[in-house]
Write a structure and sequence with these properties.
With 251 residues, this protein is an alpha/beta fold. The chain is built from nine helices and nine strands. Strands 3-1-2-4-5-6-7-8-9 form a nine-stranded mixed sheet. Helix 1 (59-66) crosses helix 3, helix 3 runs parallel beside helix 4 and helix 7 (182-195) runs parallel beside helix 9. It is globular.
Amino acid sequence: MSEKDLTARLFNIQRFSLHDGAGIRTDAFFQGCNLRCGWCANPESQEAGDAPGSREYTVEELARELVKDKPFFDRSGGGVTLTGGEPLLQIDFVAPLCERLHELGVKVAVETAACVPEEAFLRAVRALDLIHIDLKHCDDAAHRRGTGAGLGRILENIRAALKSGVPTILRIPVIPGYNDSEEDARGFAKLLTELGAREVHLLPFHQMGESKYEKMGVPYAFAGKAQLHEEDLEGFAAILRAAGLTVQIGG
């Protein structure tokens, strides 16, 4: 199949985002994910294929849609962020999309869990301007319990990203009762130091996706849980800073 015939399915394009990278951004949400995080804010993204509300694009169609916001990118230092779902599951589409966006003068970031094969991840690294990796837990057993997958491949990919020279920021979604204890914070500090990370963003747990579970008729493990706020994560952040990490609360 030629690149012009490649397609990918997206469930949303969100314009004027101020997260997931510098400046004003347009977020492209890819359909399909290989993790099953109980707190996922986009449960509609998890299943691959022709999901309700999703749309299929060719590389050129999606590039044309995303480049519409280039005047805002140019003024603010922003660009496109590929997210999902897990965009790197569709690397055969993502790599040429990044190439086309670069030809059009648009910088590209990704939000990924890095739970993809090494070859796919390295192809992505070579194509991107900024990498955000969401690390859900520092302990393999807890990571399996919370997401359905172990840490091994994820950590190898993180090491590769940190060594690549491409700006890489690790992010921890802090989830009540799952990875928010002082012991967890110390575990993350130790792991991130061993990985050679320098910067980490803490993402406070929120309930923006709660209504989606109800609409989908899917049980939600975190129903009714109180949202976390920046001040709730100061103690967690202090432990990471004490280990020499630069910490930002919020994405």
